[in-house]
Design goal:
By secondary structure, the protein is of the alpha+beta class. It has a single domain (11-181), classed as Beta Polymerase, domain 2. 48% of the residues lie in helices and 19% in strands. It has helices at 28-67, 82-91, 98-104, 118-129, 180-195, 202-230, and strands spanning 72-79, 109-115, 135-141, 154-164, 167-179. It has a 5-stranded mixed β-sheet. The longest helix is centred in the N-terminal third of the chain and has 40 residues, at 28-67. Mean pLDDT is 88; it is low at 1-11. Bound molecules: ligand 0O2.
């Protein structure tokens, strides 16, 4: 199996299961070892997150300086909690070893970039994914092809190099690009989903879909106005 570390460099034994046994009997030492492994992974993913955050803040500062324009409204980031990692290992039936976790759980580190306009979301995506020390593992374009519930966002999983005392480590980071309107919708939908433990009443789902359509119209309208303000003779903004 491909190891995340460079050749000959192994900080923790990646192939060993988090727990030495599948039975429910663990020694205190087993639990401590599992905790240490999860903490180690979380720390490594935090480093990957920092690399991406720095790249995004450089792009934002350069945009402001060169174009007198800020395409980013805000940036937030999070590393999954140990509880949430364990929940996903169980839900997706992933083998309980570090190598499998690395391979199958690609959103342990997540950065969300909220932009004013759809065009900016794609522009930042293009600029970030063009950086040659990063490589793109997977793109999910829910802006071009929204989820049936109305969810929109542009997701990319990027492999980010992190340099540790033990060598180079490649860490996947999920970056989500979206507009303020998409973000507003997603955060409300998230709250509703959790309030109803996933069993959202049908009428509410229909209302949420309508709200997503309204948000998409608002995005298109605001972008047209913005375009007219900055390029009044250029007609409609280029479609993506
Ligand atoms: P949080 O709070 O961001 O940590 P999976 O990760 O297996 O559940 P999949 O298909 O592997 O789903 O990943 P996908 O589709 O790229 O979505 C992962 C993340 O996108 C979610 O992370 C959410 O942040 C966001 N997302 C995707 N679909 C929806 C949606 O319908 N509504 C909202 N509000 N957000 C969505 P987490 O880990 O679920 O949540």
């Amino acid at each position: 199996m491909r190891t995340a570390y460079g050749e000959g460099v192994t900080a923790i034994d990646e192939a060993l299961p988090l727990f030495p046994t599948d039975s429910m009997e663990f020694s205190l030492q087993d639990l401590r070892d599992a905790r240490d492994k999860i903490q180690r992974i979380i720390l490594e993913y935090t480093f990957g997150l920092r690399e991406i955050e720095t790249k995004i803040s450089i792009l934002r500062d350069e945009f402001l300086q060169m174009h007198d324009y800020n395409p980013i409204e805000h940036v937030s980031s999070r590393v999954k909690t140990p509880d949430s990692i364990i929940e996903k290992i169980t839900r997706k039936n992933i083998a309980r070893d570090v190598a499998s976790i690395r391979e199958h759980i690609t959103d342990i580190a997540g950065v969300r970039v909220t932009c004013s306009f759809v065009r900016d979301a794609y522009r930042l995506f293009d600029l970030l994914t063009a950086q040659d020390d990063l490589s793109v593992r997977l793109v999910k374009d829910y802006i071009a092809k929204p989820k049936p519930n109305g969810y929109k966002s542009l997701h990319v999983i990027m492999d980010v190099p992190v340099y540790l005392s033990s060598g180079k480590l490649i860490v996947p980071v999920e970056v989500q690009f979206r507009t303020i309107a998409m973000d507003f919708w997603a955060s409300l939908e998230h709250k509703i989903y959790y309030k109803y433990s996933g069993q959202v009443p049908g009428t509410l789902l229909t209302d949420l879909k309508l709200a997503a359509d309204t948000a998409a119209h608002l995005d298109a309208h605001m972008e047209r106005l913005h375009h007219e303000l900055h390029e009044p003779d250029a007609g409609a903004p280029p479609a993506r």
